[in-house]
What we know:
- This protein is about 20% helix and about 20% strand.
- By secondary structure, it is of the alpha+beta class.
- Strands 7, 8, 9, 10 and 11 form a five-stranded antiparallel sheet that branches. Strands 1-2 form a two-stranded antiparallel ribbon.
Amino acid sequence: MTRMTSMMARLPFWFALCVVICADRCIQVAETRFCAGLMPLRVCASETRPVPMTYPQLTEEEFQARRDERCPLEPSYFTKDIFCYPRPECTGDADCVASTDPPLCHDQCLNGTRLKGLRILPASVCRLNASGYCDDHAGFTRQQPCTTIRPGRVRFWAVTIVLAEYHAHAHLFVPRFAKAIRVRPGRVRVSAPEQRRATPVTAIVSEDQAIDRPCKYAMERLQAGSLGPPFVVISISAVFEARGFDISAPSWRVEEEIPRSHPAQAAFDFWYIWPTTSFAFVFGFF
Length: 286
């Protein structure tokens, strides 16, 4: 197995065991009211689980109760974003194949890390006896070999949205778009021509395949009302990869013909998720 061929290729053996037993497909999730717009869109789950699945533990009461437990020294570090994203998001069934990788390296516990959008807070910040805590944690090891999660290959996904009167509200586009696809605004770049009544706005989103939350599936599910007023969406293209895009360039041109014949039609309808035995909750990730 090549490094970073899938999300599961980077998960250690103790989580892979759960995958072998109880998770073999990538399914949609049902969000809770408290975590609306923050949860993974799809996670690995067992074919034997009932449909639809819910995640009733993700409530405001549970969030407040978990803060002192997950980061006793700095409870404010355990944010709602972290609480509402308890396991890595999968992009397809291939992500749910078991891995034989060893546990995470000890310094990943001490310093914290990210995996497909999942935040592991640093024990050195959250725990009084951080080293001892990491020694006792089954998910980490001082021995070699061990698994280190590092930044991986960066891809750029793009979609063109034709908007009426875009320039009058251009300052709202990036935060609205980022919220709609559940990513940080800093991952979004925008290109739009000069003033037009119907403006084709191309949004390009970066995705580090090792540490970033996946974005392509969420982009594919954009619909006319996703950006909210005052934006009026005329059409949405299919999502495509922006090959050759240089994020550091002062200006850029998409080196691929923008497909316009496949407007997004999927709505955010029925989502499913794992029950209480989530990755973060079972293994006590900070």
